[in-house]
Known about the structure:
Elements: E1 4-8, H1 10-17, H2 23-32, E2 33-38, H3 41-54, H4 60-74, E3 78-80, H5 84-96, H6 101-113, E4 122-124, H7 128-137, E5 140-142
Parallel strand pairs: 1-2, 1-4, 2-3, 4-5
Helix pairs in contact: 1-2, 1-3, 1-4, 3-4, 5-6
Amino acid sequence: MMTDIAFWDTSAIVPLCCFQPASQKLRTLRRKYKTVAWWGTIIEGKSALNRLFRENVISKKAFAESVKRLETQQKTWYEILATDKVRTVAENLIETRDLRTLDAMQLASALVWCFEKPKGKHFICLDHKLSKSALDLGFTVFPR
């Protein structure tokens, strides 16, 4: 039963949609934590799934099923919209952290979600650099 809420990076959402080495661990976390995601997660997720298909990591059937799972999940998550505040926070993160644009948008959305008070808030991510930045800012990062 879900007892808490967490910000989920796209890198943690994609393995919920198709089998990957971290899928089981993330499914366990998904049963515990409701999802907060940023506005671009659906686009980034479809792009990642498409890349897995193009690289022959998943079949055409698995790709179609994975996209359906992603779209179903989107209906259940709380979405942080692309606002001026998210943009401003992301710009500041680009100046202070070694992050790519979309990672800065993800982390900025997480910070906006928690009113820039990340202590005690959960951040679920498989990207090492993004996880480190979230941890440095005060988030509790999973998986460990």
